Queue: 2 jobs
Job 1
Amino acid sequence: MPAFRSGSSEQVAFLEDLLSAGLLSRTGVHGVYARGADFERARLALDALITRTAAAESPEPLYHPPLFPREQLERNGYLGSFPHLAGTVFSFDGDETAAADQLELASRHEDWSGFQSMTEMVLTPAACYPLYPAVAARGPLPQDGLTLDTGDAYVFRREPSSDPSRMQIFHMREIVRVAGRETVIEWRNLWRARAEELLRGLGLELELDIASDPFFGRTGRLLAAQQRDQELKWELLASVAGEPSAIASSNYHQDHFGEIYDIVTADGEVAHTGCMAFGEERVTLALFSAHGSDLSSWPAGVLAALKL
Ligand code: AMP
Ligand code: ZN
């Protein structure tokens, strides 16, 4: 069983407030919520603000569904680094007797996984992942590389919690750069300022942190230390129910995906990649946490920035 993380009493109380205000509704599974009208209005307004902020670069939209070919997960390193976070899609492939036996177990809510077999699909764990094989299939990059936009993609992470900002399924919006090393590094610095300005413009107090991913196991601790030393990941943290929460993050993968997928620049070098990710539910939660559960009474400047 994956570790269930209890939220603090403030986080649990914040979740209760969100539920009673109709901003979120429970589904019966921790970290899987339905969104009410005002939560969704705020999230979509944020999504549109990200679109306006990125417009100067005219990123190419490439919107993928929340299912990802299993083969890509096996290939891109995720299964090795984050086996504890991955979600897989299994389905029934048996005869009538097996169907009846499965139903019998299911009717008692017992384990019917023995009747399920692996499909070619897993749940998409990060919005940018499907873009790398797609870009590689096009052949060498154009002279200036590519900038892509994932749209507000649903992603899955197996991290059940009663902290509303730790969801199992949520929208991740990423702007992704695939180009030569220098270009990606420069682009990343540009977005560091841009993302901060966007989020401060929404009245959020932010902290910037050099961060690492929750790599699995003992080797994972080493990988996390390396990632931090090389400053490959930074996060912008805002308060949600009194606790700092990473609402946006930027990853520099160096030539990891370029090597795996054989992505080459116009000059024949292995491409580098970087991405700027916004956790849309987390940003929205930070906004409700900072400005209150009544959207119409948020500060005028914030509503104007969101065009609400
Ligand atoms: P990451 O790929 O881990 O850097 O995630 C990108 C962004 O997604 C983070 O900056 C968070 O805002 C958001 N995020 C990550 N994990 C979760 C989660 N369990 N629930 C909600 N949002 C998340
Ligand atoms: Zn990414």
Job 2
Amino acid sequence: MASDCVFCKIAAGEIPAEIVAESDQTVAFRDINPKAPVHVLVIPREHQPDIASLAAASPAVAAEVLEQTRVVARQESYEDYNIVFNTGAEAGQTVFHAHAHVLAGVDVSKLFLA
Ligand code: 5GP
Ligand code: ZN
């Protein structure tokens, strides 16, 4: 755990969050500033600064993060959803603990990929 990391503190239960799912290696909780009807963050319990670092250091944990995005979406009654991994400050990353944004109820791809 990184002592100054807000998401490590959420995973440790030291900062409150609305947790919606947990697995051995991950925790999922609602984003405090939701941008879609469903906006959940899936994080590894392991501290890594971004998804690329996580994939390199612990690929099985990165896979579990991906699997949990589906679990969360289905739990929220969505089959279709977007996953966003902001990676690096210039790409908008503000919390440097790897996290998947799970977004459902709006087609995010239309905003910036279409
Ligand atoms: P990033 O910009 O790094 O990809 O996304 C960080 C996300 O974490 C933002 O969408 C922000 O709203 C969310 N966030 C930041 N601090 C907290 C917090 O303390 N609790 C929760 N639930 N979400 C947070
Ligand atoms: Zn952390």
